[in-house]
Design goal:
alpha+beta; elongated
Length: about 150
Amino acid sequence: MKQEPHSFRPGHRAWQSYARSAINEPGYWHGRVRGRYEVYGGGGEETIEKALYEVLYAASYGDVLAASEAGSGRSGTYVGTIDQRQAEWRGSLDLPEGMTHLGGGKMRFTDIAVAYFRGGPQSGPYIDATHLLYLDPMDDPYQLTREGDA
């Protein structure tokens, strides 16, 4: 954030918020956080508290969690059986990398993919601290199990 001339009030200054956006480049989803920063919000906020709130309100920090997981040196996978159609569709997505449909609705998620979904907003697909995968707020979640943790 930085203070700049207010967009709508000549002669006044405002805190302009910047937020990193996800980028579709090789390596980004493997934890190299190199997203560009873009202006977030409208014409700026008069207090730094309001500017911070605007950024945090819409933040999805999955890329940061994925980068942290990638840098930890740990590696592992999680498996779970989800709706067959969801599994087929999610397994075909390019991003985030690390989701594999194993057949019959069984999915494998790398620890980096799990970290990414832990950072998502609860209005979209996310994974909670007990490894429950929520794909739709109206449906029951699916339990994921870390492979090797029988």
